[in-house]
Amino acid sequence: MAEHLTERSQNILEAIVEDYIASAEPVGSRAITRRHNFNLSPASVRNVMSDLEDMGFLCSPHTSAGRIPTEKGFQYYIDTLLQVRNLSPKEKQKLQKSYRFQGMKMEDIMQEVGRVLSGLSKYTGLVMAPKFSSTVFRQIEFIRLSQGRILVIYVSETGLVQNKIIEVDHSLTAHQLEQISNYLNAELTGLSIQEVRAKLNNELKEERVLYDQMRKQALSLSCAALQDEVEDRVYVSGASLMLEQPEFSTPQQMKRLMQALESKKLLIDLLDRSQAADGVQIFIGSDSSHIDLEDCSLITSNFSNKKGAIGSLGVIGPVRMDYSQVIPLVDFTAQLVSRVLEREIE
Amino acid sequence: MAEHLTERSQNILEAIVEDYIASAEPVGSRAITRRHNFNLSPASVRNVMSDLEDMGFLCSPHTSAGRIPTEKGFQYYIDTLLQVRNLSPKEKQKLQKSYRFQGMKMEDIMQEVGRVLSGLSKYTGLVMAPKFSSTVFRQIEFIRLSQGRILVIYVSETGLVQNKIIEVDHSLTAHQLEQISNYLNAELTGLSIQEVRAKLNNELKEERVLYDQMRKQALSLSCAALQDEVEDRVYVSGASLMLEQPEFSTPQQMKRLMQALESKKLLIDLLDRSQAADGVQIFIGSDSSHIDLEDCSLITSNFSNKKGAIGSLGVIGPVRMDYSQVIPLVDFTAQLVSRVLEREIE
DNA sequence: ATTAGCACTCATCTAGAGAGAGTGCTAACA
DNA sequence: TGTTAGCACTCTCTCTAGATGAGTGCTAAT
User: What residues of chain A lie within 8 A of the CB of B249, using their CB?
Assistant: First the structure.
């Protein structure tokens, strides 16, 4: 896999990738010699290009067009040629100013992050809020809406608020509900949702619980409340910006892309995968494994606070994306968001 | 404006509109005589069509194409020709089954409604959740996140939950917060947010309040909590379905439409206007006043519960939309949602 | 009033020519 | 032996011209 390229080949591959990123058009031997000062004739460049094509880094759409980088070409470029410059303090500050998190609750922050990512990159911004079940329990409140309908409000350590309506067959008074929430708040604080679930299930199994009406109700109520939250935690911003990209210029391509970006499920999938690893991750084209995003690359990074609630954010753009610009953007934004979330709980 | 058309003209106009809705292509005199049994020759139809064109109901893309209805033509069709059939009980039941509101909280319901509207109409579903300030106060809770950062959770009579983080300069203990929320809950229950705001402002002005620390804090805290909520209350579903419509088949049209549908502000505008009136409303093409939606029509209706929290829902599609199908869909869905919301508070 | 007939218009489709960009190969060159 | 100039070749893209066909508007006959 890690084939060795001569320095000349590397230079030429780099030139091709960069020219292609800039122009979105196949680049020819002539164009390269014109734009870069290799002291080589087009013919020599052609020879190198031919080699690169044999090795699978380049391909040509047809005989008499220039070459375009394959996914493998992009991969190589990103892995070994691309130098991600770090942001200067000034740039960092500027970026930081783009975000206005003042007094925002979680959802607003997520949305705002998406907007800015998309606005700065000119591609589509993607944010996945921390999974609720990865958060730490802080407080639970019950509010009786009507006979048999109870609104459960659940707050995590990070200030993430989740609410849900549950139906119960036996009616409960406000007083009973208060008792129950007091009990749960005392019992569960500081546990992660996974732990809470485990604990609840265990206790419910214990027989002696059955004799304590209040506890029993408390447990079954919170069980219901924490069950199967299917959350829609993905925020997509600036999808229509992608339509400006020449790779999505035909109606078919547009449709396909828009459908894909509308499918939250697909995006959740992708971002979930991103969460498995640390740092900035790059999925190139068919790496993303979904056929409808085959012309797209995804750059993601995770954010988290000390309590371990993990979310992901990123930018999705054409494979021919400006990686050198987007990578530091995603990287620093993730750090920024982590910091903001940590500040929230201090 | 209300020009008089002979019965024959009406019939032909109706035929043209319906054929155009079905085919998206200009309809010619020949096609009409073929498809409908007017006992008329194409030539006679042509004469009528020519008249209709003069009156502004039809236009032709070019000399040798058929005619297509103008917006005025559609308007007339909807106002006087279209018979919106009521849904049969069976259809109503079927529709009702499409929605699964069981145990859903407000946001989920809104989203689900959008999804179903879009799925059934094959156009784009639009839902605007009730404006928060139009809801009725039920309960407020404060949770101390960190030094100076307080999470406010506010619940309306309908079970709508709103949360917000506010920053305060003086720190408050959990006990103090509890006192404050008890006080507010006792004072404010049953008032609409507008009323709550008015009351708070009035009381803050009264001098004697200044001597009661707790009350003062309570008031200023809740003032901060209820201020300037800029909510993003619009749910758009199935935007990409619009790309299947022939009127949006070119890349330019697609881009324009997608941008418009991404602009929540624009949609909020439209739906806000819908709230001003009762019943099903239809905005045809440039009626919508926004240039980027000039090829679209919007069918909306409002939903509400007895407490007066009002939201809107609707379907946005091409002007050449299947009105006879979508109007009852929107109408009945609005009723359905109203009923569900009322059930929530009972 | 209605209709058949006919000339006319205009978009769409097709084929073919020409231009342009870029390649691959070969032979000459340093 | 690596590099380069030259040249034939390929393929896309664009432009033009002609053919096609749908549909109109007008006129004259019924």
Answer: 251
The C-alpha atoms of residue B155 and residue B305 are separated, in whole angstroms, by 15
pLDDT at position B346 over 60: no
Å between B58 CA and C3 C1'?
Answer: 23
- Tell me, yes or no, whether B2 lies in a domain: no
The whole-angstrom distance between B236's CA and the closest CA on chain A is 10
Rounded percentage of chain B residues whose pLDDT exceeds 90: 52
Q: How many structural domains does chain B have? A: 3
Of A166, A232, A254, the CB nearest to B254: A254
Q: Are strands A296-304 and B234-237 parallel, antiparallel or unpaired?
A: unpaired
Q: Residues B201-225: pLDDT tens digits?
A: 888 777 666 677 777 778 887 887 7
Residue B145's domain is classified under what CATH number? 3.30.390.60
Does strand D come within 7 Å of the CB of A43? Answer: yes
Full DSSP string of B187-236: HHTT-BHHHHHHHHHHHHHSGGGGG-HHHHHHHHHHHHHHTT-----EEE
| Co-location of B62 and B182 in the same domain | no
Candidate from A149, A240, A255 with C-beta closest to B255: A240
Contacts with A250 from chain B: Cβ below 8 Å:
251
Phi, psi of A282 (to 5 degrees): -125, 120
Chain A residue whose CA is closest to B158 = A145
Same domain, B124 and B66: no
Say whether the CB atom of B220 is under 7 angstroms from strand D.
no
Domain assignment of residue B314, yes or no:
yes
Query: Taken in order B211, B214, B219, B225, is the CA torsion positive or negative?
Result: positive
Does the pLDDT of residue A229 top 80, yes or no? no
Residues spanned by the domain of B75: 7-81
Å between CA of B43 and C1' of D29 = 14
- Residue A332 in this model has a pLDDT that exceeds 80: yes
Indicate if B254 and B219 belong to the same structural domain: no
Q: How far apart are CA A135 and CA A124, in angstroms?
A: 27
List the structure tokens of B45.
């139809």
Would you state the structure tokens that stand for residue A232, as one six-digit string? 């829609």
Looking at the fold, whether A242 and A320 belong to one and the same domain comes out as yes
Select the more confidently predicted residue: B157 or B299: B299
Tokens of A177: 């509900």
Closest CA to A320 of A19, A45, A12: A19
CA distances from A143 to B131, B157, B161 (A): 21, 10, 11
Of A71, A131, A49, A143, which Cα lies nearest the Cα of A321? A71
CA dist., res. A128 & res. A275, Å (int):
10
Residues B77 and B107 both lie in one domain? no
Residues 24-63 of B with CB under 7 A from strand D: 26-31, 42-43, 46, 49-50, 53, 60, 63
* Token duo for residue B282: 């239809």
Amino acid at residue number A156: S
User: Is the Cβ–Cβ distance between B156 and B138 less than 8 Å?
Assistant: yes
| Mutation for B interface: A100, A101, A161, most B CBs within 10 A | A161
Residue nearest to nucleotide D3 (CA to C1'): A44
- Test mutation, B100, B104, B105, chain A, max A CBs within 10 A: B105
Coil, strand or helix: which one is B140? strand
Task: Give the C-alpha distances (Å, rounded to integers) separating B151 from A40, B143, B163.
Answer: 66, 5, 7
Residues A11 and A147 in one domain: no
Q: Are residues A171 and A286 in the same domain?
A: no
Dig out the tokens for B38 from the structure: 């007017």
